[in-house]
Structures are given as structure tokens and as C-alpha cells.
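[step 3/7] fold_predict: job queued, chain A
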Amino acid sequence: MKTDFFAIIWGLAIFLSMVGWGWAMIFALRLKNWPGLGVKAAFGLAFSAIFGGLMNLFGLISQTTIFAFLGLGGILLLAFIIFSFNRVRAGIIDFFRDIKKDKVFALLTVGIVLLFVFQYAVALFTPFNGGDDYQAYFVYPTKMLQTGSMGGDPFSDRRLTSSLGGESFLDTFVLAVLPHDYLHLIDRGSA
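[step 4/7] structure written:
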């Protein structure tokens, strides 16, 4: 039960770190209109997959670097909230004003939040299909954490098609602190 609760908290921490990295990418691209939270998280995931591929290429992946990467994403999120406090506060005030004013919008918002919570719970607590090839997905992020990279294997078709290992790097976010049972957290939890 303690692990399940920690998995819920850790998944939210990963999400917030991805929002921080996404916000940094949006700021670096100098976009005028800042997109919502989900798009920021998507930008963060895309950046993380690219950055993780480069870290894999140079053999720099470890539990320490994963913590540093996610921690820096959290720090970036806090910095951008402080940097744009008035804009964030105005957005929150407008959101709650819209909920008070429009009951249909309020019901839709509650429905979307409930769908998100359901999807998140399914991602955390769905067991792996033993007949599928999930065991192949366990190997690469585990090897990354143990050796620093996926390593070279020119005779592995799966390795050749998985490129630099960006997706496996994203899976290391979960495996850095949780057992393999929670590997769904990135794939299903962020979909």
C-alpha cells in the first residue's frame, strides 16, 4: 500500500517536472501565446526523449542523473511560476470565474478531471499482459540505469528500430525509484 501511494506521488512529480521542462522549451522557442498545462507537459516529454537519447549515446544515465534531471525540471517549473506569477494568477482566477459563471463548463471540468484520475489509476494498477513482449521493455531502461546506456547490439532488430532510446529513458523516470510493476506510469499515465 505504501508503494502504491508513493507511485501516485512520484507520477505527479514526474508530470510537474515535464511541465517545467516544457515551459523552458516554450520560453526558449519564444512562443508568444503560452499553451496549457498538457501541451507544456508534452513539450517536456518530447525534450526529455531527445535529451535522454543523447545521454544514452554518451552513457551518462544513472539514478543520480535521473533525479537531477527531474529535480531541475521541478526547479524550472517553480522559477517560471515565480517569473510569471501575475499571468498564472490571472489564469487561475479566470478559470474559477468561468466555472462559477457556467455550470456546463463546471460539469465538463469535473468530468475531465474524473477521466484523468481514472486513466491515472488504470496506468498504475493494471498488471502486465504476460503473453505480450513487455519483458523486452523492462530490459532497456533497467540496463540504462545499471550501465549508463542501452549499449550497442547491431544484431537486435528491436534495438535498431528503437533509435537512441528516448522512450526507454522516459521509463527510467519510473524505475529510478519504483519496481517494474509500475512501468505503465509513463506509457499509459501520460497518454
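[step 5/7] annotate
Residues 2-187 form one domain.
The mean pLDDT is 83.
exit 0
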